[in-house]
Amino acid sequence: MSTPAVEVQNLRKVYGSGHTEVVAVRDASLSIARGEVVGMLGPSGSGKSTILTAMALINLPTSGRITIDGTPVLDGPKALVDLRAFRRQHLGFVFQKANLIPFLTALENVQIALEVNDTSPREAKRRAMELLDYLDVGPRAHNLPVALSGGEQQRVAVARALANKPGLILADEPTAALDSQRGRQVMELFGKVAREQNAGVVVVTHDHRTLDVFDRILEMEDGGLIERPSSQTQSKP
Amino acid sequence: MNLAVRDIRHNAGRFIFTTLGIGLLLMVVLGMSGIYRGLIYEATLLVDRIGADLWIVQGGTRGPFAEMSRVSASLEDRARAVPGVASARRFVSHTIQREHRGKPLRIVVEGLSWPEDRGGWIPLIAGRGIERAHFEMIADASLGMALGERIELGKDVYEVVGLTRGLVGSSGDGLAFFTVSDAMAIQFDVLGETVRLEREARRERVAASDLGRMQPEFVERATGLSSGIPAFAKPQVSAVLVTLAPGADMDAVRTTFGNWPDITVYSTQQQKDLLLSGMVDKAKRQLGLFRVLLILISTIIIALIIYTLTLDKVRDIALLKLIGARNGVIIALILQQALLMGAVGYLIAWGLGRFAFPNFPRLVIIESADLLSLAVIVAGISTAASVLGIWKAMRVEPNTVLAA
Fold first, then answer.
1. Which of B217, B252, B277 is the last residue of a domain?
2. Do B1 and A115 touch (CB under 8 A)?
3. Is residue B284 over pLDDT 50?
4. Which one, of B168, B229, B194, B210, lies nearest residue B360 by Cα?
5. Which residues on adjacent β-strands are paired with residue A92?
6. Domains of chain B: total
């Protein structure tokens, strides 16, 4: 059995203290395999973004353990590795907004993710171009983000997330700013990436029209994590 | 990939205008040191060029450039008699202001001890030296006079027979060279009515004295020319310049002059030091303070601009942190922008200064050392200015990127 892309055990996140204490996530556990696309649903404030940002190592939990690619990285709020270096090497991120750096071209936005991970500029450029071609935005490689459509920007963001061949890709409502057709294309892209790049993908979404893309669906409710029965997942096309 | 250059390229307009402003400020900083050097050059120019070894001035004074100095013209002959002295010249220096072509014209009048000194040491750009005992002058080009032009000074008209360039006094006014007697005539020129009143007052004083009552011809002589009255001393000069004979012992000559109680003697270097420690020193401190203020202002401006640019990039910096960029990448982005801003501002200052400084009313001298020191200062203030931006960037949390 291969190492899971991510394992979360008894994750708990509490904001504030005393009368203002809010439990955002209570004892959530999950395991996502490489090559698997998992959707995370739930109403606003249910804690799904909190668990995602905890897995992204940018929002430290109050307690619980997180293991990524077999490496224990967080024990409660205590970092067991250099979190920034770990993010650089093992994680990819896609957000509701593409969050491309406005003064870099599409190609450079992907290239920078490789260069910060010590890839030589020449190799980074080659690989970035390869990724943009793979995601069908190669012809727009030398355009600044402002000249790209929302869908194209999101594809570039996915290319950036894939740049360092991460074992885990975390996406926070990646289709919220897109129309249904482009939203579906992006979701299908995650499926393709998970299979072909052998990466685990966790997608936080409100978009119920694309649930068929997911291998599994987890639902957050009042800080707790429930796995939706497979019968509730729409059949894949 | 150089993020700083790409960000600047993206915000080219803002960068250009900002660096232009910084460049103008740095040009003023550069100009301040240039003006100071110009002041020193102009102040010591005459002392350097005139070629004297010793300056004999009125006893107890600091010489004609520091204060009023009056010595007897006959001191020239006394000085010549001292062993080791090759030559002695009278020196007259004073500033006058006249109307010229409807504008005020300030002239530093210098007297040459003609015929020994015909101004051969003055670098001429046109014309010749002074060849006649009277009514000829050599003018600095900054006075705006043309060769052959005639100008009335006092009761006489002087012709410009030679032109020089870059010879100005410590106040920046152009020099004009005359024979000593002409320079003194210009200095002591008074209106006819003043002369008449002075002669009348003299006549009354003599007439009221025992001498006048006993010998009426004295009363008659009292109304004549001052130079015709033996009791009156000859008009005095500002200083006497001494040139030593080859191989003469300067200390021995100075010791001799030092024993004369009516005069004080200075070497050329001492005369220069007196000039620089007086008026020029205050100007130096004034310019130095302005320089410090301008450098501080430049630092604050660069710091605020870099801080603003950093604020504009908070999300980008957060993203860089999220994807794992090391702090060095982010620090380099901000520091390089500050250094680039400083470097381009410096080049603008240098370029603009080359065109602007020659048109300043006072001489501005920019030396390589000034350019080098400004480069070091700019590097320093750019680095210091980036600290605020770097501090802000280091405080940005990666999850800022998630904020809508």
1. B277
2. yes
3. yes
4. B168
5. A169
6. 2
Question: Between chains, do B324 and A89 touch, taking CB under 8 Å as contact?
Answer: yes
CA distances from B328 to B275, B322, B334 (A): 53, 14, 10
Contact B323 A59 (CB under 8 A): no
Judge residue A190's burial from the number of C-beta atoms within 10 Å of its C-beta, 0-12 exposed, 13-18 middle, 19 or more buried: buried
Chain A CB within 8 Å of residue B404 CB: yes
Q: Does A147 touch chain B (CB under 8 A)?
A: no
CATH for the stretch A6-232: 3.40.50.300
Chain A's closest residue to B404, CA to CA, is A97
Min Cα separation B3/chain A (Å) = 8
CA–CA distance, B65 with B119 (Å, rounded to integer) = 20
Contact residues, chain A, for B401 at CB < 8 Å: 95, 99
User: Does residue B293 sit in the same domain as residue B268?
Assistant: no
What are the pLDDT digits (tens) for B344-388? Answer: 999 999 999 999 998 888 888 888 988 998 899 889 888 888 888
Q: Residue A58: which of B3, B11, B322 has the nearest Cβ?
A: B322
Residue B402 in contact with partner chain A when CB distance is under 8 A: yes
Give the pLDDT of residue A237: 41
Query: What is the pTM (predicted TM-score) of this model?
Result: 0.74
Spell out which residues of chain A touch residue B324, defining contact as CB-CB under 8 Å: 84-89, 116-117
Which range among A105-119, A175-189, B119-133, B257-271 shows the weakest confidence by mean pLDDT? A175-189
- Band of residue B135 on the pLDDT scale cut at 50, 70, 90: very high
- Name the domain boundary from B277, B310, B331: B277
pLDDT (average), residues B224-253: 80
Find the domain containing B311 and state its range.
Answer: 3-43+280-402
Coil vs helix vs strand at B103: strand
Asked whether the predicted pLDDT for residue B303 surpasses 70, the reply is yes
Contacts of A61 (CB under 8 A, 6+ apart): A11, A12, A13, A25, A54, A74, A76, A77
What letter represents residue A20's amino acid? T
Domain boundaries, chain A: 6-232
Give contacts of B337 with chain A, Cβ < 8 Å.
none
Rg (CA), chain B: 32
Q: Do B132 and B271 reside in the same domain of the chain? A: yes
A117 at the B interface (CB within 8 A)? Answer: yes
Pair (B36, B68) in one structural domain: no
Q: Which residues of chain A have pLDDT under 70?
A: 1, 229-237
What is the C-alpha separation between B354 and B348, in angstroms, rounded? Answer: 10
The answer to whether the CB atoms of B325 and A58 lie below 8 A apart is: no
More confident residue, B316 or B212: B316
Query: Which of B370, B331, B377 lies closest to B350 in space, CA to CA?
Result: B370
Q: What is the ipTM of this complex?
A: 0.83
Same domain flag for B151 and B32: no
